[in-house]
Amino acid sequence: MSLDAIGGAGGGWLLAALLLGIAELLVPGVFLIFLAIAAAVTGLASFALPELPLTAQLASFAAWSVVAVLVGRRWYADYPVEGGDAHLNDRASRLIGERVTVAVAIEHGRGRVVVGDGTWPATGPDLPVGASARIVAVKDGVVEVEAITLPST
């Protein structure tokens, strides 16, 4: 396929912009989109100025790439993308606040509690098997618990 078949150099740059945009969607990294914008602007410039030499087109692409990246960096600094869950990949911190049941009595500050479908080593006040507790911290794979006191009636 020749450049004339897709609209000359301008069509080639717009095709490059489309491919870069698709690549950004397939492998999101918030970088290729800026290059796609630069390629699109260069493509429009090539349509407006059909005799634009290749060196000028490459210089345009380079300049618009820098401009697009700088604008993008400023945008993301002013409007940061909020994450859905700050503890998404930190299982231990996700456990804090969980209600657990003592599986092996906590005696002299050590025992085991049921967390999900398994048991974890635990530290905390002395508690009998079956007592309810709340995880208050996790350190080195050991959960620290506090007793859950039921309100008196």
UniProtKB/TrEMBL annotation:
Gene Ontology CC: plasma membrane
Subcellular location: Membrane
Membrane topology annotation: Multi-pass membrane protein
Superkingdom per UniProt: Bacteria
Keyword set, alphabetical order: Membrane, Transmembrane, Transmembrane helix
Ranges for domain NfeD-like C-terminal: 93-146
One Pfam entry name: NfeD
InterPro entries xref list: Membrane_assoc_protease, NA-bd_OB-fold, NfeD-like_C
Transmembrane segments: 6-23, 30-48, 54-72
The keyword Cytoplasm belongs to this UniProt entry's keyword annotation: no
Primary localization class, coarse: membrane
Name of the protein in question: NfeD-like C-terminal domain-containing protein
Organism annotation: Sphingomonas rubra
